[in-house]
Design goal:
Helix content: 10-25%
Shape: globular
CATH architecture of the largest domain: 4-Layer Sandwich
CATH superfamily of the largest domain: Metallo-dependent phosphatases
Number of domains: 2
Mean pLDDT: 96
Number of helices: 6
CATH class of the largest domain: Alpha Beta
Order of helices and strands: EEEEEEEHEEEEHEHHEEEHEHEEEEEE
CATH topology of the largest domain: Purple Acid Phosphatase, chain A, domain 2
Largest sheet: 12 strands, mixed
Radius of gyration: 21 Å
Distance between the termini: 46 Å
């Protein structure tokens, strides 16, 4: 079988870019043991040598360079009938092979950005159809579920990745502040990429380097809305140390040979702050993040959501509170009509070339709601 979802698979795989690897995350409808073959190498979903089956979300990490060269991978699984201590019973092995297109290095790249879908599926999928099969990279930039009160909400990540990327192209996925709310929030890492349990990390795909950040919630930890269930201030302090390590590492990966484009992906546009309670948090910390971007990393673009807008914020503009290092694209606008219950969605297509980025904000109906070409001035 090729590029097909089977009865055992809930959705098609999501191929997340993390560090120098792809994390292939595969949701299953039944208990199964799962492995992934790339060329003649096999990678397992195991815990210290024991193949996992009780958790129906499987994650297999493969080297990015290997999959980029092979341009296909095979999901191999066996459904569990009875995992007895001796002579467990399983169904016959099934192999599903998926084509894979790594980020192209010899032309401009086409990115589709979705955030703040808040459980919407049909409308964001339709919006992403603006690029269709020409898409090279899907970015799911936080608040994809409406909240984490139910696991079915978290599955919105898989629904969108499956319908849009189809297991065939890389996906970058971040966590938003609404993803931190509810009884299932602690389980969200099973659904999204992370590096050593952290939702902030870097990844490089050829000449493109990405910094993925996570601001956590948008109010102080002791705000009554959260009921003493979060500790994001120390989380952000640790993230600040991570940023310092990225900058002061002798290798300086963002300046490595061959890196030509640098992008920041973060749900909350931290260079903007509502200077009123309860949103006026982490002023010194976010100012420090902005300084590190501006003085050290020099990204070309920062891609954000959170504000439910379809706008480009220029350096020095009215929304530049802490000193942007680059233009900020706030790239998704969900619209819900309370009276009619009608839903609309505006997403963002970015065509990134060597000298400029063309930004298109399009309605899920296909109507263009805004266009802008941004000159790129990376140092």
């Amino acid at each position: 079988m090729k590029n097909q979802q089977t009865d055992a698979m809930s959705y098609l795989p999501a191929v997340y870019a993390v560090g120098e690897s792809y994390q292939i995350v595969m949701p299953f409808a039944v208990e199964a043991i799962v492995k992934v073959a790339v060329g003649d190498r096999v990678f397992y979903d195991d815990t210290c040598g024991v193949l996992r089956s009780s958790d129906r979300i499987h994650r297999v990490e493969v080297p990015m360079s290997l999959l980029d060269a092979a341009r296909e991978y095979s999901v191999i699984y066996r459904v569990i009938i009875d995992r007895k201590a001796y002579y467990p019973e399983m169904e016959e092995e099934v192999c599903v092979t998926f084509d894979f297109r790594p980020l192209p290095q010899d032309r401009e790249i086409r990115i589709y950005h979705l955030s703040d879908t808040h459980n919407m599926v049909e409308e964001p999928v339709a919006a992403s159809g603006y690029l269709g099969d020409a898409m090279d990279l899907l970015i799911l930039n936080g608040d994809i579920p409406n909240h984490a009160g139910k696991h079915e909400h978290l599955e919105t990540v898989f629904k969108l990745a499956s319908a849009v990327a189809k297991g065939n192209i890389p996906v970058i996925c971040t966590r938003g502040n609404h993803d931190d709310r509810g009884r299932c929030a602690e389980d969200f890492l099973n659904y999204i990429p992370h590096q050593n349990g952290k939702t902030y990390y870097t990844t490089r795909m050829g000449r493109y380097w990405f910094l993925i950040l996570d601001c956590g919630e948008d109010k102080t930890d002791d705000h009554e809305e959260y009921g003493n269930t979060i500790c994001f201030h120390p989380f952000r302090r640790a993230e600040t140390e991570f940023l310092k390590d990225v900058i002061h590492n002798a290798e300086k990966e963002y300046l490595a040979e061959g890196v030509e484009h640098r992008l920041v992906v973060c749900h909350i546009p931290f260079t903007f702050s509502k200077l009123v309670e309860p949103f006026d948090i982490e002023k010194e910390l976010y100012a420090e993040w902005a300084r590190m971007m501006r003085e050290e990393i020099h990204p070309e673009l920062m891609l954000c959501g959170h504000r439910h807008l379809a706008e480009v914020w220029e350096v020095g503009g009215k929304n530049d509170v802490y000193g942007q290092a680059c233009p900020v694209i706030v790239g998704s606008r969900p619209i819900r009509h309370k009276d009619t219950k009608e839903k609309e969605f505006i997403g963002c297509a970015i065509t990134l070339g060597d000298g400029s980025a063309k930004v298109v904000f399009n309605h899920h109906s296909g109507e263009i709601r805004g266009e802008q070409t941004i000159p790129l001035c990376a140092e």
